[in-house]
Amino acid sequence: MTTALITGATAGIGAAFARRLAADGHDLVLVARDGKRLSEQATELHDRHGIEAEVLTADLSTEDGITAVEKRLSQPRRPVDLLVNNAGFANKGRYLEVPMADELTMVKVHIEAVLRLTSAATASMRERGRGGVVNVASVAAFVPRGTYGASKAWVVQFTQGAARDLAGSGVRMMALCPGFVRTEFHERAGMGTDNIPGWMWLDADKLVAAALTDLARGKSLSIPDPRYKALMGAVKLAPRGVLGGLTSRTGRKYGPQ
Fold first, then answer.
1. Which residues contact 47 (CB under 8 A, 6 or more apart)?
2. CA-wise closest residue to 121 among 157, 84, 155, 164
3. Tell me: the pLDDT tens digits for 38-96?
4. Residue from 160, 168, 155, 152 nearest 219 by CA
5. Whole-prediction pTM
6. From CA 49, how far away is CA 26, in angstroms rounded?
7. Residue 154 has pLDDT above 80, yes or no
8. What are phi and psi of 221, to 5 degrees?
9. Residues of 65-87 as b/e, b for ≥16 C-beta within 10 angstroms?
10. Which amino acids are annotated catalytic?
């Protein structure tokens, strides 16, 4: 039986990955900051699907948290076959309105943690000749809007570059770029969503199903919805000034996690 490790596992896209992978018979390592919520989730998934669900309480904005997950990913006797780097957050406010400490925390979680955890996982996977990594980015990676979009653009570029470097090793790498998903994300960030058109909202479970299909097909980039694929196609043709205006109207974070 294979094992998947999911960061940010207790809510939103991370929880949807946990539900789907448990239903498919994968054992899980669930990572998040809230130990109580993790334990409840692990018990529910074990009882419902008969899988083993390990709990690892870790804050990926801290050195100790990243190190703890790195160590788990490197354990040869309990190998992780699929890593889902999903943990992330948004800051409310424009550039220079957000405290520098909060901006640096975002860099720690979205960039440093993703780099280090991916490296720990893929080193072991390459030795075994198999494995997969899904790094959750966002369609915000493709529009000019603040630190969040910039950090997610890094995730996309890093993942696709690493995928090329690992080609033929048996390790698959994919950047997942969702649009707006109905999760707790905006509430946690203190962001209103009244101005987001209904057609832009995605279902987390359907999103995950499409993402896993794309991973199985060997894609290094997944935009798992026809609406957003069309929208991102239009983005490539639109002047960057127009895109900046669009993201200003739809909020600091264009395409949530």
1. none
2. 84
3. 999 999 999 999 999 999 999 999 999 999 999 999 999 999 999 999 999 999 888 99
4. 160
5. 0.87
6. 9
7. yes
8. -140, 130
9. bbebbbebbeeeeebbbbbbbbb
10. 148
